[in-house]
Amino acid sequence: MILNQANYYSKEADMEYMSASQFKNFKRCEAAAMAELRDEYALDESTALLVGGYVDAHFEGTLDVYRAQHPEIFKKDGTLKSDFVKADEIIARAERDELFMLLMSGKKQVIVTGKIAGVPFKGKIDSLLDADACREMVRRFPETAPVVGFGDGMIVDLKCMKDMHRVWSDDEHSYVSFVDAWGYDYQGAIYQKLEGHALPFVLAVTTKETEPNLEAISLSGDDLDLALSDVEELAPRYAAIKRGEIEPERCEKCPYCIATKKLRRIIDLTELEV
User: Fold this and answer.
1) Cα(first)–Cα(last) distance of the chain, in Å?
2) Is residue 234 part of a domain?
3) Closest CA to 187 of 48, 22, 66
4) Which of 42, 49, 58, 191 is buried most, with the most CB atoms less than 10 Å from its CB?
């Protein structure tokens, strides 16, 4: 299947290709991921996701289309709801920062495909910088040189976060960075592998705080290599689940598992998880 902007998010594309978001869905709960692919279950699109999509659309140059496709972001009088007024503030803040705008100046929404551990993957790069853009970045901001490296290019992913605080992880039993909590290292590893030139991966982060914050965050090669090893280990299993060769496991904790839970026995109080 040849991917383009029109069919990238289609159900057919999602069944043929794995993606970073799909991989993370499977890692959280295999059963929920498959239910979503089969259109058996879908979470309502949250305001947080809509705000993130609004900011993404602005930098893609498709904000007018996004507004037309999402009438729910407007009040009855035709003005934007408060969350999207905040989104405009976030955009204005980002546009006042020279380095942030350099990061977002690359080729937009570049589709990349390839195989990882024999599994077809797809990705969509928010901003793909070329060598000229990297050289200009180092010329104007010399302190970026250690990240830019040889200046062959850079993969930039735009994130709109509530904040950049550390997040509690039940798996790790400790606080971890928001990058680890949301699996952005997996995304970086997948995009870097698919793009094929081992380019630096940088998150261009905005926040929804009272005063919107900005940051440019580089993920190290070691972190991306570690994440890629996980992808290579787990992706074949997830692909086999998609093909119907393996039954997906339930996590029994996510909204899908709770919604489809069936009682089989009476438990002891000591078994109850809080």
Assistant:
1) 45
2) yes
3) 22
4) 191
